[in-house]
Write a structure and sequence with these properties.
Layout: H1 5-29, H2 31-45, H3 70-78, E1 95-108, E2 111-122
Helix pairs in contact: 1-2, 2-3
Length: 125
């Protein structure tokens, strides 16, 4: 089935909503709950069940810049993993709102790419 622009919009919205859920879960119920929520979101939004995922976290560097395992992605979102000591938990930064603006979209049947800006607003705005 071909990918539509609406599919990309829905995926960005689901990702943003997921990040807000991770943050809220951490704020109200702690790291264990946030880790569980993040794990579920990763399962729903990333394709680890299909094979390797190419994931480059924005706030990572050095030898652990790229993540191709669920463990590495989960650590990026919630931290608290000694195998990734530099991860502070991007998803647990008390996010309140996430917005995206499109610069360009590429779709070729079942392959799609989106490029644009994502704005994050935390509790301290």
């Amino acid at each position: 089935m071909p990918i539509l622009e609406q599919d990309l919009s829905n995926a960005r919205a689901a990702w943003g909503d997921g990040l807000l859920k991770i943050s809220k879960s951490f704020e109200t119920q702690g790291i264990k709950s946030a880790t569980s929520v993040a794990s579920e979101i990763i399962d729903n939004l990333y394709g680890f069940n299909f094979g390797k995922v190419l994931f480059k976290p924005t706030l990572s560097g050095g030898s652990q810049t790229f993540r191709s395992t669920k463990e590495g992605v989960l650590s990026y979102f919630v931290g608290h993993n000694s195998a990734y000591p530099n991860d502070s938990g991007f998803g647990i930064k008390f996010w309140r709102e996430i917005n995206s603006d499109t610069s360009a979209i590429f779709i070729d049947e079942t392959v799609a790419m989106w490029m644009g800006w994502v704005t994050f607003i935390d509790r301290d705005r």
